[in-house]
Amino acid sequence: MAGPIKRSVMIAGHSTSVSLEPIFWEALKRAAEEDSLPISALVARIDADRIAEPDPVNLASAIRVWLMARLLG
Predict the structure, then answer these.
(1) Most distant pair of Cα atoms in the chain: their distance
(2) I want to staple 57 with a disulfide (CB 3.0 to 4.6 A). Which of 7, 17, 61, 71 is the partner?
């Protein structure tokens, strides 16, 4: 099992770093392709939902949970 890979993603005009394991990067890429979105746009959507929560988790956790929810959905 490979460890996390850090990548930069643009959200609302600024770059942020996200560390995810390769399997999550691949799942995020596939989800973006299925929704006809760039990865950055999908991450921005996930981030918007995340910060709307009363006690937001970090972005990497939000992405992992979003991906699992989509898988189980």
Answers:
(1) 33
(2) 61
Instruction: Output the pLDDT for position 1.
Output: 76
**Dihedral, CA of residue 60, residue 66, residue 67 and residue 71, to nearest 10:** 160
Task: Tell me how far apart the terminal alpha carbons of the chain are, to the nearest angstrom.
Answer: 25
Q: How confident is the model at residue 5 (pLDDT cuts 50, 70, 90)?
A: very high
Helices 22-34 and 39-51: angle between axes, nearest 10 degrees? 100
Which residue in this structure is represented by tokens 């850090």? Answer: 6
Q: How far apart are CA 31 and CA 70, in angstroms?
A: 9
